[in-house]
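SAMPLE LOG
Freezer: B-3
Tube label: C17
Construct: single chain, 249 aa
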Amino acid sequence: MSDDQVASSPRGSKTARGLTAQGGGAQGKAAGSQTLARGLLALEAIAGQPQGLTVNEVAQRLDVHRTIAYRILVTLAEFRLVVRSSDGRYRAGSGTVTLARGYAAGVREAALPVLRRTADELGATVALISAEGDEAVAVAVVEPQTVDYHIAYRVGSRHPIGVGAAGLALAALRLPSPGEPAAVAEVRERGYARTFGQIEPGAFGVAVPLHTADPALHLCVNLITAREDVVDAAVPVMRAVAEEIAALG
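STRUCTURE (predicted):
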């Protein structure tokens, strides 16, 4: 059998098809990597804009056609990484919370001893609160062991961001936006929030935002008590606690 016959044999054709498939596979991987990179860039851009981005704005940021941007956003939305609001803008979705929890869990574990010490020192319940979408969620709650009576709540308790001391502290971690409540700007300026009766009737709250190395991770430390004298003494302590925990993270 000649070399020409070998090259034209079915076996030779099969090998050629295999080489073509391998080449196509490499091209497919490159295309897949590009799509992944674009998706991550889109998610990063949206997460950095509390007001969200439109499809056209995402397309401009990625330098791609609007149709491609739309397909990327649809895929991200399927995994709840982004959500399309009624105004047509895409904002970070609940799926990003799951991604962030791995890092937040490390901060939580590091914060617990500090929270226990502070709760006992001030005689009030102290918590670490995380922003999850438009809600403030308690990820760690420590009750004092030094007093017989205190206000308490459970891990997982949540309320809207912008309401209560913790909600205001978390809102202050966001970029300033037109029309935001004056109370948020005040918290951003003075570095802490203090409220009365906004979440629990008759309860005072003090919360301080955490300025961690990761600006996308929005956390605050929060104290709740029925005693005004405790709140008066708590502000400088809570500010120091927030700095300590932020340094641990």
